[in-house]
Amino acid sequence: MEGLYLPQSFSEEAAKEAFSIMPISVDCLHHWTSPYVDDVFDTNEFWYDEEQTTIDEYGVKYANEWRRLISATKPGLIGEEYYVPDGVLTICDGAFGLCGGLALSAPRSIKVIGDYIFGEESGKIVIRD
């Protein structure tokens, strides 16, 4: 293989180690600087411009003009329930990972819910009408 593109978070050392056990060789490793999907729908909580974020009164960080929920930055402010505002399209991976037992009320506008949004804790998602 002539070249392979990897996310910035994947180091060259990790790539070399991973490919050392595979029956292929890669001549050149490249890092991409943006996700493959429209960033509004990307669940990777690390892909956002910090200057373009907003944090609500519960410490929940949003990007892309309130269409992408990044993470709960102050879990203690949330309590047992959190109401995701209308218009949110994506909830990122691990967004409520530190908010054990949370009940999430999400709008019908939700298109993408990331992996492990409650981390290793339990949680419940209710899609409201």
Features:
29% strand, 7% helix, three-stranded parallel beta sheet, mainly beta, five-stranded mixed beta sheet
Strand order in the largest sheet = 3-4-5-7-9
Average per-residue pLDDT, rounded, comes to 83
| Alpha-carbon distance between the two ends | 49 Å
How would you name the oligomeric state of the polypeptide chains in this document? single chain
Number of domains: 2
Which parts are unreliable, with pLDDT below 50 for 5 consecutive residues or more? none
Q: Please give the largest β-sheet.
A: 5 strands, mixed
How many DSSP-defined strands?
A: 10
Rg from Cα: 18 Å
What is the overall number of helices? 1
**Outline type:** elongated
Structural class category: mainly beta
Relative helix content: under 10%
Q: What this model shows, in words?
A:
The chain is mainly β and 129 residues long. The protein has two domains: 1-33, no CATH class; 37-127, no CATH class. Helices cover 7% and strands 29% of the residues. The chain is built from one helix and ten strands. It has one helix at 12-20, and strands spanning 3-7, 28-32, 54-55, 60-63, 68-72, 81-83, 90-91, 102-106, 112-113, 123-127. The strands form three sheets. Strands 3-4-5-7-9 form a five-stranded mixed sheet, with no helix packed on it. A three-stranded parallel sheet has the order 6-8-10, with no helix packed on it. It is elongated, with a radius of gyration of 18 Å. The model has no long low-confidence stretch (mean pLDDT 83).
